[in-house]
Amino acid sequence: xxxxxxxxxxxxxxxxxxxxxxxxxxxxxxxxxxxxxxxxxxxxxxxxxxxxxxxxxxxxxxxxxxxxxxxxxxxxxxxxxxxxxxxxxxxxxxxxxxxxxxxxxxxxxxxxxxxxxxxxxxxxxxxxxxxxxxxxxxxxxxxxxxxxxxxxxxxxxxxxxxxxxxxxxxxxxxxxxxxxxxxxxxxxxxxxxxxxxxxxxxxxxxxxxxxxxxxxxxxxxxxxxxxxxxxxxxxxxxxxxxxxxxxxxxxxxxxxxxxxxxxxxxxxxxxxxxxxxxxxxxxxxxxxxxxxxxxxxxxxxxxxxxxxxxxxxxxxxxxxxxxxxxxxxxxxxxxxxxxxxxxxxxxxxxxxxxxxxxxxxxxxxxxxxxxxxxxxxxxxxxxxxxxxxxxxxxxxxxxxxxxxxxxxxxxxxxxxxxxxxxxxxxxxxxxxxxxxxxxxxxxxxxxxxxxxxxxxxxxxxxxxxxxxxxxxxxxxxxxxxxxxxxxxxxxxxxxxxxxxxxxxxxxxxxxxxxxxxxxxxxxxxxxxxxxxxxxxxxxxxxxxxxx
Length: 547
Hints:
Blueprint: H1 26-40, E1 44-50, H2 56-65, E2 71-76, H3 83-93, H4 104-120, E3 124-129, H5 137-146, E4 157-163, H6 165-170, H7 177-180, E5 183-189, H8 197-207, H9 220-227, H10 231-247, H11 255-266, H12 283-295, E6 337-338, H13 348-362, H14 372-381, E7 385-390, H15 393-399, E8 403-407, E9 415-423, E10 426-431, E11 434-439, H16 440-446, E12 447-455, H17 472-482, H18 498-510, H19 521-531
Parallel strand pairs: 1-4, 1-5, 2-3, 3-4, 6-11
Antiparallel strand pairs: 7-12, 8-9, 8-12, 9-10, 10-11
Helix pairs in contact: 1-2, 3-4, 9-10, 10-11, 13-14
């Protein structure tokens, strides 16, 4: 749809494994060298693994195009085969005629005869099995036995196994140790590095016939944060971002378009969408209502959002699944309650990275981060913000949000932990990769008072809301207060008047907040928690002091 608009000969970010578009990063060059070794060595297995979407299949297609004329290739793309099916597939790929009635022995004899004839003619026979992690143990053993077809000098069959990381783990099992010992070269293909994102995108655009600056440097960090550098994810996100820019008439992709595209293609917007505002009639309020529909048309995780071209259509608000801690859901439970920090503590940089990844995980936000700055930037991509503050344990109890706490150390060096929950008088924390239960006294003694939490601001929120403010954020504030019994169902409006200030002050006093009538982050967080039970919390309920 957008190709002609941007002067492209075809789609530059198709997920089809077209070797023309293969970007040869340092990793891809090394992986290709390992594949080429498979036909130059004396035989055995070559193992190439990588995460889903890392580019294994595309790399393999590039490798096939570079094979010399004397190579014969059997390519198995469906590994969920029985032993007879595998042998029959190999015969079919090598154009070996099989009799009507044949067993495994007949197939192997014919394969051996074919391989000997090919070797006598100076030809090399190569078997490639894609998605090899799906091979059964029985089939893997048969594949190993095929390498027994050999002469005195070399193996007659060269084998390449392509698979996901599970294949590496599978081959470490004792029952497959004979096969593992025959692997002569191994390589694991990882994601692109941050500084490779821009060359990767420009390479694909150039192959597609464009040298325009369609993805400015300002969005590169954002693309990396959303995809982790996985090529297939990059392709999907860039394709949707270009479509969105085309639909909006933009000459190139900007950060807002990437953010919306990420929400659509990954279905991973972790923040609960605000309900559509039921604003009263009137010119101003009608404008606000339309803005709310356009701004909050994106659907929550698990639902597909409409493409940008359909942004004018409205959709009914949906309720997302309850937010679950993504990082700690499967973590082992602490064995005992500690009255002091465990020793020794992990390195500070490792503890910091683990703490912020855990914090993002509580909100279902992808977490390719290592520090606070990266975590806050990543959170903004998904509609959340960092809240930095200081206080005591009562402050954290009132805040009632998972947080990263800075610890005070005798040597003055920083240290970090993630506070995940209150369990009675104990705090469930994560230090490095290890969960622990600390007494509140132990946490209070170790903590220096500084914390970082995540929260979701209301629509169009820029600064604390006070009398005289007029925005969509004020309309949301009125709506949330109108849902509470004590608010008396006041008419919604987008202006912050004296009546709204009174309602805010009453709410603040009931929730142990300073009663200044100004809706800042702490007030908005408590208000959202009062009307939304799905957001991450330290405890299911927080005691509220009544007047």
